[in-house]
User: What shape does this take?
Amino acid sequence: MDEGVVERVLRAVEQVPRGRVVAYGDLAELVGIGPRQVGRVMSLYGSNVTWWRVTNASGDLPASLADEARARWADEGVTWKPNGVGCRITKHRADLARLADDYERAVADLG
Assistant: This one.
């Protein structure tokens, strides 16, 4: 996987504010790749960033991550959907315009 793409995805994740979430597609649009590529980067390299702030378009996470995410979201004030699999993304989605501005500053040194 291209190291530049990995770095851009991880820096984008780092810009998602506490108590907010984004979908893979939101990050894909910022970085200029597809949502599945974002998911792949997160699965391989995302353990050292705030991975619990990145969900699918419905606000869900893989079941294997749910318990740890639940504790982190509770700490950040993110509420779960009744199904217990994900969050209410429409309530907790980050401001995407601000995220884009923050992302541009975060990757400015990458050229």
